[in-house]
Structures are given as C-alpha cells and as structure tokens.
C-alpha cells in the first residue's frame, strides 16, 4: 500500500467520522438541552422542597415560580432572562459586573426566594440552589450537585441527608449580621443556626460548600437589605 | 443477548461460532482470565445501575467496532491500523455518550467521564487487533459481543455486591430491611471505595479458578 493510499484512507476516514458525529450531535442537541433545562428546574424546585419528577418538572416550575429576575451587586434589577444566566461565567467577572439570578416562588401564600450558587469541590465544580423564606434569613431548603466528587464521600452533598440539614438554618444572625451557614468537620454544635454536619472523608468538598455559600450569598447582601427595608 | 440472536438464522450458530460467544464468558474471560479492563471495573461499580449502563454501552461499542473493523479489514493500511481502530472506537463511544445524554440523562450524569473512558478499555482494542482484523464480520460480531458480555457479567457481579453491601440498596432501591439496621447492622463503607472493587474482582477470579482447574497456572 502506497503512502498516497494511506493518506487518502486517513483523510476519507476523518471526513466520514466528522460528518457522522456532527450530524449526531446536531440531531440530539435539542433533546439534551431539554434534559438540562428540566434538571435545572428540578434543582430549583428541590431548593424549596418540592420534589419533581422529570415529567412534571416543567408544570410545577411554571406553577410555583412566579417571578424570575436578575439583580446586580447593588440589588438593582437588570434586564435579562434569569434562567439563561450561566453562573460559571458570572463568577469569573468582577462582582460589580455580575448578573445575579433570583427566582421567586409562591408556596402556600408564602414568598420564597431561590438563589443559585456555584463553587469548587475537590475534583471539580459544585453548584446548588438555596431557598430562603420570606424573612430572607431563614433557609427553607437547599439542593446541591457536583460534577465529579468522590462517590460515597464528597458526592454525598447531592444526597438528601446532607441537604435536609439546611432547612431552618439562618444566614443572618439575630442582630442582622450576615453569617452564612458553615459545613463543619464532624458534628455541628447543638443549637447552632449557622452550621451543619460535615461529611466524614469529604472535608474538602464540605469546605467547598461552606465557601460557596459564603461567596455565593454575600453578593446578594444589598438585594437582601433592599427587600427587607422595602 | 440470547433474545437478540435467536431472531437470526439458525445456521449461523454452528458450535464453532457459539464458542466465540461462550468462551469469553468463561475460560477466556477478559477480566478474570486475561485481567484486562480492570480500571473501569474499579471506577463504575459502586452502583448496579451504573454498572448495567456501562455494560450495555460496552456491548454496543464492541459489537459495532468489531463488525466495522472486520468489514474494513481488507482496506485498512497496516501502518495506520491502530489509528483507524481507535478512531472507530472513539466515534462509537462519542455516539453512545450523546445518546445517553439525550435519552437517559440521569444515568449519563452518574457515569460522567467513564463513558468516555470506554475508549481506553483495552479489551476492545485487543479484540479488534486479535480477531476482527483477520475474521469475517459475523464471527467478529460474536467475538465482540461475547467478550463484552464476559466483561459485563463481571461488572454486574461486582456492582451487585458493592451496592448491596456498601449502600444496602440495589438499582437504588433499599433491599436490606430496616429491621436489620435497627438490630445494629451497618453498611460497609469500605465497599464503596475502589480497593474493594479490586478485592471483589480477586474473589471472583478465585472462585472462577476453583471451579475451572484448567485455568490454574502451575508454572
């Protein structure tokens, strides 16, 4: 077999493979994007303790989430679709330029605020949503997920037992100072409204959640102030 | 798998071709005898569900890869055959990954990078080089599916025991009754960690050799 044949063979192979893969990706993209949107809706609903199956996520989302908006670090509303904001990109920007999504839900007559978070775990990104009660200080629920934390250890942040601890915790203390919830090593002190139990063997992921909660909620401080005074 | 093959013409199942299918499940098992593909066994067998999807994905990739390479075998320039094989495998794996993302999104999230790592599964490359490159498509298909099935059953066995003993569940459903936990039974957290996968595979190899004495290497 001549060199010419080898080159032609390789080139033809590459072109055919590229065509096949590109068309598969294009064909399946709408389905995949839909899956991602549904997952996002499920996660947002989970932060206010509404379990939603894939099938009903969209209906429930439209029923409970009444308003979505984007605010800046001064708490002023800005233009845009909150659902389309990619926190990954926002976190790279200066705080003053970030677009901060807020999802507002009406549940049994109470207004709940859901804020997205994104941070770093041990192996990769972690993210989640925190639902705040109408006082904007008490956590109604939280939902976390991760890209590649260690199964059985750090990955447990996406499991119910870890997330359930957050309900009823507070991100502001009684004096009104910002004091986010920390994930502490071992057991959280009894009666501490600002700490939850860490995951044994998952300390770096636990710390990642602590940092994510602090950094992710701090940028909303002006918004909280504004909402409380109005 | 037997459902799948029963539909084809019976003549295709001479004892010789059945051997291609059956041997890799036992005497020639890629994992327990050839000790290939161990890394993925360690990585994705924490739960039975992920093991199952991985097993199916490997069966699909291997079946198709063997047939494609076998069809192309007379045209592939020997000098770039490894590249050609790798391209075929990689393309199939990407296709599988895309399909999983579109249709079983949850599972694809759990498998994360490991679907991509099917590319590096040495069993597939090994069968292409050793078999598909010099055999007709049908025997190659049987050889591919047989080897993938040999890989799959070990994967499922390891996944079964790791999930059962490590999490007390199977396919995500709790199977260990609560009463046992109340009596003081605890899930063995060690089962979730990769070393236990290695030990479980070791035990399977041990049982396999105990039952099939021919496999014992006395040298």
Proportion of helical residues of chain B: 55-70%
In which order are the strands of the major sheet of chain B placed? 1-2
Low-confidence stretches of chain B: 1-8
- What is the strand tally of chain A? 8
| Sheet having the most strands of chain A | 6 strands, antiparallel
General shape of chain B: globular
Q: How far is the N terminus from the C terminus of chain A?
A: 80 Å
Number of helices of chain A: 6
What percent of residues of chain A adopt helix (DSSP H or I)?
25-40%
Please state the overall shape of chain A, judged from the principal axes of the Cα atoms.
Answer: globular
Uncertain stretches of 5 or more adjacent residues of chain A? none
Discrete helix count of chain B: 11
Overall domain count of chain A: 1
Q: Give helix and strand order of chain B, one letter per element, not per position.
A: HHHHHHHHHEEHH
Classification by helices and strands of chain B: mainly alpha
Overall mean pLDDT of chain A = 90
* Strands of chain B, count: 2
Largest sheet of chain B: 2 strands, antiparallel
Q: DSSP strand (E) fraction of chain A? A: 15-25%
Which protein chains are joined by the largest interface, and how many residues does each one contribute? A-B, 24 and 27 residues
Distance between the termini of chain B: 37 Å
């Amino acid at each position: 077999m001549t060199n010419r044949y080898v080159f032609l063979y390789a080139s033809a192979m590459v072109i055919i493979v590229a065509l096949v893969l590109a068309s598969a990706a294009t064909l399946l993209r709408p389905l995949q994007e839909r899956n991602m949107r549904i997952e996002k809706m499920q996660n947002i609903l989970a932060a206010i303790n509404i379990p939603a199956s894939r099938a009903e996520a969209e209906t429930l989302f439209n029923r409970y989430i009444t308003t979505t908006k984007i605010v800046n670090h001064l708490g002023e509303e800005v233009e845009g679709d909150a659902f389309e904001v990619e926190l990954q990109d926002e976190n790279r920007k200066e705080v003053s330029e970030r677009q901060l999504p807020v999802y507002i839900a009406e549940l049994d007559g109470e207004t709940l605020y859901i804020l997205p978070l994104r941070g770093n775990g041990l192996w990769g990104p972690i993210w989640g949503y925190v639902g705040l009660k109408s006082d904007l200080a008490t956590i109604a629920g939280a939902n976390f997920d991760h890209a590649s934390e260690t199964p059985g250890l750090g990955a447990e942040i996406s499991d119910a037992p870890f997330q359930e601890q957050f309900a009823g915790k507070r991100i502001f203390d009684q004096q009104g100072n910002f004091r986010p919830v920390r994930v502490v090593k071992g057991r959280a002190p009894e009666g501490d409204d600002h700490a939850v139990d860490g995951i044994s063997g998952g300390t770096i992921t636990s710390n990642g959640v602590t940092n994510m909660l602090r950094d992710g909620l701090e940028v909303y401080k002006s918004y909280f102030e504004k909402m409380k005074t109005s | 798998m037997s459902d799948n093959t029963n539909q084809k013409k019976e003549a295709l199942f001479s004892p010789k071709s059945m051997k291609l299918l059956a041997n890799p499940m036992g005497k020639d098992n890629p994992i327990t005898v050839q000790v290939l593909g161990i890394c993925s066994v360690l990585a994705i067998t924490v739960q039975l569900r992920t093991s199952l999807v991985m097993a199916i994905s490997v069966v699909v990739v291997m079946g198709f890869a063997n047939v494609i390479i076998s069809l192309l075998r007379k045209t592939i320039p020997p000098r770039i055959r490894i590249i050609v094989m790798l391209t075929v495998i990689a393309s199939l794996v990407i296709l599988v990954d895309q399909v999983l993302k579109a249709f079983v999104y949850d599972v694809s999230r759990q498998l994360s990078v490991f679907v991509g790592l099917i590319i590096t599964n040495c069993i597939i490359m090994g069968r292409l080089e050793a078999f598909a490159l010099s055999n007709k498509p049908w025997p190659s298909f049987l050889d591919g599916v047989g080897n993938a099935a040999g890989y799959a059953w070990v994967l499922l066995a390891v996944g079964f025991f790791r999930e059962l003993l490590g999490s007390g569940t199977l396919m995500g459903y709790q199977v260990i009754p609560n009463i046992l936990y109340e009596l003081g039974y605890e899930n063995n957290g060690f089962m979730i960690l990769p070393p236990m996968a290695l030990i479980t595979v070791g035990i399977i190899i041990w049982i396999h050799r105990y039952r099939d004495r021919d496999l014992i290497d006395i040298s």
